[in-house]
Amino acid sequence: MMKIQNISIIGLGALGVLFGNFFADKLGHDRVSFIADKDRIRRYEEQGVICNGQKCNFKFSDKDNTNQTADLLIFAVKASSLSSAISSAKNYVGNHTIILSLLNGITSEDIIGKALGTNHMLYCVAQGMDAVKLGNQLTYSHMGELCIGIPEDESEKQPMLHAVIDLFDHIDLPYVCEKDIIHRLWSKWMLNVGVNQVVMVTQGNYGTVQQEGKARETMKAAMREVIALAKKEHVSVTEEDLEYYVDMTDTLNPDGMPSMRQDGVSGKYSEVELFSGTVINKAKIYNLDVPVNRMLYQEVKRLERNY
User: Fold this and answer.
1) Per-residue model confidence as pLDDT tens digits over 241-280
2) CA–CA separation, 123 vs 75, rounded Å?
């Protein structure tokens, strides 16, 4: 029976800090480490990392280390950093390593799997959190949950899935084991296409889309374009899924903001290619019109040209 004894995380952004801190508190700091190069490790140790006002005493591991592989390897980087993260993490992948990706979008599992081995990959969706990381400080009031699962045609990965379930049960991490993980992946992506981009272009926060008005309707319109696209791709995403995620968004701290808006505040280039960029490119295949996502894409690019 597979058992997860140690966890390696690559990425010290909002989700990396949130879940890394949770894992370290529950399992002990010696069993959880962050992979980075020597320069980043030195910078992290000098600056420190703060989570909800408390300093995190994280353990760091050099990316060039070849002495130990990870039982569970978690990618918690932005899409723009995925290629370098894969390179940094490759030494930590052993024969029995399980990999989870917390990245937004619907493509990271395929990208990581092609580079490190699809046999290591489980599907994962991080949702429901309102974490905001500015500088070295993370704040959140809703931890959210991880949705995990395997497609129907990958039943050989059941032992890996059960190992993750056993770990999550042991530490009381909020999670859902999805019967249809591809549906969940697309549904969460639909939410990101709506809320992340609209909060970005309005330069607002969750409160901007929690109240009735143009921003909220634009968010829903962008999400409905994903529903139409999903139908073309034979993935069942429905209006009920849309309402579920809009309701979830309404529970978040109105002063919080999604990661895309946090990038904007920090003057960093966003993950727009994961959202409207992907919608637009996929829609071309089916000659599907997606005017709301085209508009959002153009607006995000306009904002980023001013950085």
Assistant:
1) 999 999 999 998 899 999 899 889 889 899 999 999 999 9
2) 12
Long-range contacts at 244-251 (CB < 8 A, ≥ 24 apart): 244/187, 245/187, 245/188, 245/190, 245/191, 245/194, 246/219, 246/220, 248/127, 248/128, 248/191, 249/191, 249/195, 249/206, 249/209, 249/210, 250/210, 251/128, 251/142
In a 3-state reduction of DSSP, which class is residue 8? strand
Residue 1 pLDDT > 90 = no
Determine the Cα angle at 51 with ends 49 and 56, to 5°.
Answer: 50
Dump pLDDT digits (tens) for 24-66. Answer: 999 999 999 999 999 999 999 999 999 999 999 999 999 998 8
Tracing tokens 């997606």 back to the chain, one arrives at 290
DSSP, collapsed to helix, strand or coil, labels residue 87 as helix
Residue 240, H or E segment: helix 239-250
- In the numeric block, the tokens 């580079």 are attached to 115
Element at 70 (helix H, strand E): strand 70-75
Q: What are phi and psi of 235, to 5 degrees?
A: -115, 130
Nearest residue to 242 via CA among 300, 295, 186, 290 = 186
Phi, psi of 303 (to 5 degrees): -60, -40
What is the set of domains in the chain, with CATH numbers? Answer: 7-177 (3.40.50.720), 181-305 (1.10.1040.10)
**52 burial class (0-12, 13-18, 19+ CB within 10 angstroms)?**
middle
Token pair, residue 38, equals 């020597």
Q: Which of these, 159, 161, 153, lies nearest to 177 by C-alpha position? A: 161
Tokens of 271: 């993950």
State the amino acid at position 44 in one-letter form: Y
